[in-house]
Task: inverse folding
């Protein structure tokens, strides 16, 4: 493949991490700010619903995650289509514009309805911003380092979730649940909007260049997935028909189903054991911290070892960690389980995205990523609904056991149905 072509502006297009290091690093920083917007809620919002708005039913308390998941999942789908049609950068900037009111709504909310509306906006913003940074990094690095690129992307996002969850826990303990924790989110939104509008560059031409120089697999596996697919066909292939794409989509859904459980019910479970808000913040941060940092290694390893069995191992490790959380009732045990849950998620998260990039043709890859993220982030809504209903009917630990079983089953589906998507061209 010729690694370089010319844009209309005269600037050369080069694929690869080293050739695009400055823009890639900038996008990593932008996605860290995206993660920080999510992290502002992880420790504080479940406690806010219970203590300030006096929500007693678990299903009602998890309603903010339900609407967040629905909004983000739907927006993910459109983000892929819009980024192909209008370009990546306009979609990214639009996502940050939607994010700006969120911290203010959470600070001023006189009722839970305001919190629900804020999370609809947060879901739309996350769908636009996070999806677009994923696509832009895949555009820049080309086919050789997708796992590494997704590792950096997801590591930045979820490390920021962890740091912000920890920071907001301490702020809430020192200054109260509002407004101090959400002032961080306001700063993140302003900085993210400024960087995206003024410094980030469009990457759609990189995808077009890769498509023009695309080399089919020698084994002929993807020959039926030709470059010109309609939106409906992209949805069908990614969701149901293509074994690797659809296996990744269901695994992504279940992965975020258990993340929705962790987000909404873990702080309440820990509080029932008498833990302070500060300790709850530590536990809320441990899981995404290990998840985030671990992806710096797991994404790159999937470029060497392959995708399939890392995904299987990650799903089964998550299931085991959830079982431990359901069994123990003290800080130390929960801390160990949180580390295991983060490690399992780190094995899965960038690897699933890399597998989508392996299979989807560059001309419809952004749409396929959008469909995958539609299913994956639909897991937030499914997790909130399932966990809330089971917790209301039985108890919180029963909800954790239910999600653990579904996570183990998802890993089994990948083991049986998915093929290895990492293709190493034969040397000549």
Result:
């Amino acid at each position: 493949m010729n690694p370089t072509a010319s844009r209309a502006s005269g600037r050369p297009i080069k694929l690869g991490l080293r050739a695009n290091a400055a823009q890639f690093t900038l996008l990593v920083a932008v996605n860290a700010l995206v993660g920080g917007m999510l992290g502002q809620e992880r420790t504080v919002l479940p406690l806010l619903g219970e203590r300030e708005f006096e929500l007693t039913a678990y299903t009602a308390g998890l309603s903010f995650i339900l609407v967040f998941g629905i909004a983000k999942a739907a927006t993910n789908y459109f983000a892929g289509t819009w980024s192909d049609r209008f370009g990546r950068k306009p979609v990214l900037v639009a996502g940050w514009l939607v994010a700006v009111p969120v911290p203010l709504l959470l600070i001023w909310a006189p009722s839970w309805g305001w919190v629900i509306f804020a999370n609809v906006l947060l879901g739309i913003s996350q769908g636009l911003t996070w999806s677009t940074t994923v696509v832009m990094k895949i555009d820049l690095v080309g086919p050789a380092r997708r796992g590494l690129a997704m590792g950096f992307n997801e590591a930045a996002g979820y490390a920021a979730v962890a740091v912000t969850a920890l920071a907001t826990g301490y702020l809430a303990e020192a200054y109260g649940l509002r407004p101090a924790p959400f002032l961080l989110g306001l700063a993140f939104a302003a900085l993210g909007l400024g960087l995206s509008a003024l410094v980030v560059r469009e990457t759609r031409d990189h995808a077009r260049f890769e498509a023009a120089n695309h080399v089919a697999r020698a084994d002929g596996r993807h020959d039926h997935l030709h470059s010109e697919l309609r939106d409906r066909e992209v949805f069908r292939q990614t969701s149901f028909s293509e074994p690797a794409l659809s296996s990744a989509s269901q695994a992504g859904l279940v992965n975020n189903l258990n993340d929705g459980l962790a987000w909404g019910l873990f702080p309440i479970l820990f509080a029932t054991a008498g833990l302070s808000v500060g300790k709850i913040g530590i536990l809320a941060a441990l899981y995404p911290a290990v998840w985030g940092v671990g992806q710096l290694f797991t994404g790159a390893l999937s470029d060497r070892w392959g995708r399939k069995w890392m995904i299987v191992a990650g799903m089964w490790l998550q299931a085991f960690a959830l079982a431990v959380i359901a069994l123990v009732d003290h800080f130390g045990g929960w801390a160990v389980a949180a580390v295991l849950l983060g490690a399992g998620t780190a094995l899965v998260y960038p690897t699933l995205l890399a597998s989508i990039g392996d299979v989807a043709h560059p001309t419809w890859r952004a749409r396929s990523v959008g469909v995958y993220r539609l299913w994956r982030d639909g897991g937030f809504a499914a997790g909130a609904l399932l966990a809330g209903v089971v917790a209301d009917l039985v108890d919180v630990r029963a909800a954790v056991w239910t999600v653990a079983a579904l996570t183990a089953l998802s890993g089994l589906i990948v083991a049986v149905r998915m093929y290895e998507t990492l293709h190493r061209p034969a040397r000549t």
Observations:
- The CA atoms of residues 208 and 363 lie 7 Å apart.
